[in-house]
Amino acid sequence: MVADGLLWFDLPPGLLAGGGDHPDRQQMLVRTLVFRLVAHGESARPSGGAQPG
Fold first, then answer.
1. Among the four 9, 20, 39, 53, which has the fewest Cβ within 10 Å?
2. CA distances from 50 to 24, 37, 41, 45 (A)
3. What's the confidence (pLDDT) of residue 47?
């Protein structure tokens, strides 16, 4: 939700500083951002689908 807020809803970057002290929090945020980049790239392709294989 933090990644979506930053990318799509122009929420303030200070959102990254708050909320939670889970030890894997930073890694989860990185994985979310990578997922969003890949999903956006796939949806931007003319066929809208994944490459075979």
1. 53
2. 29, 14, 10, 9
3. 62
Q: What is the pLDDT of residues 3-52, one digit of tens each?
A: 777 777 888 888 777 667 778 888 888 888 888 888 877 776 666 555 55
Euclidean distance between CA atoms 49 and 41, whole angstroms: 10
19's CB contacts (< 8 A; 6+ apart) are: 2
| pLDDT for the residue numbered 39 | 83
Give the chain's length.
53
Q: How far apart are CA 47 and CA 53, in angstroms?
A: 15
